[in-house]
User: Fold this.
Amino acid sequence: MQGFISWLETQNADKNLRHLIKSALLNGACYTGSESSVTYLLSKGVTPDDITPFCIVEGGSVLLLRKLLKYDVIHTARADKSLLSSHPNINVLHQACLYDRKEMVTILCETYPNLVNDIDDKGMSPFYYVVAKGSYDMFNTLKKPVMKSLCRVEDEQHKCESEAGNVELSLQLCELYPTLITAVTNEGLTILHNSCGNGHSELSLQLCELYPTLTTAVTNDGLTILHLSCSNGHRELSLQLCELYPTLTTAVTNEGLTTLHNSCGNGHRSLVLQLCELYPTLTTAVTNEGETILHYSCSNGHKELCLQLCELYPTLTTVVTEEGYNCLHAIARFTSDVDLFTECERHVKQYVEKTGGKYDITTMLTTNGSSVLDMAQINSENKSMYLHLVQLFAKK
Assistant:
């Protein structure tokens, strides 16, 4: 490194070009965590740019971050995106949270507390990044500089750090700094939505207790915290939320989706069956388009769950949507699982005949006159299902 820099200085190259080369070397050394190279380059007058702090965070050297504090660059530096996130316009604290650099987060919060309030171009503060990763320790680290700003004397500072005073100050935090705790993303997600969607039980329940208004918040699509928890199959957290906030169990999205629809659509069998048992009225709920939980499970090809729902709730097998789709139409249209179709058809046939009807698959038509064969033909990649139904219809 020293030999190259000495050689570079002797070259009759453009001054700006030499500067760019030195800056690239500095950032490269920061990225690899080479403390000796960084120290040497800084001693030669190479100055950090806006990229340097992000390289240091990626490299993970706390010593280099402390060196950089001497330069007036961290608090204004922004990056278009990170290797770990496509969110544009992030600050250095965002980056440290993404890389789970706990000591760096502490240093940055103590030195530049204003970064805690900062948001990226998607409206996310560092709080969102920490919640998404489920880091309870870093969440508390981010909260400290904001809480300190609320404290005016030493005794109040002790209260800040106590369990008893934490709730009071947190409620003040909601009121005085709504952009931190009650802020929403462009999609309407709060930090509690993010936490529940990622299944971080401890952090989610802490947020629920501290900021109760967040428990009723819905996204632009009408998703509650329970919808997101159920959608991602976080069984323990979902059941705790059901118990603590029973009104969430009956909430529906803008499209009329219940939490059970969300869970069924993603095939979370254990959670689905427990929700069905605890809240039986949800088993008959339909969306704005008339889709049942069986429709959702079938459309996404969750075979084991579909068959259990057929056995437990046979009436669902003949329910049709506003467009006249039954569960077989859904399977034929959206999946290529012939075994699922065959097993589900057996349940449909049994229920139709048990209730005094005559089963004929060729006459099961949607409101626009489409059969299950027509449904299979819509999907060009669904050749196995289409060929199976062609043979089945030929026998009728």
Q: What stands out?
A: The mean pLDDT is 85. The CA atoms of residues 136 and 206 lie 9 Å apart. The longest helix spans residues 15-32. The chain has 24 helices and no strands.
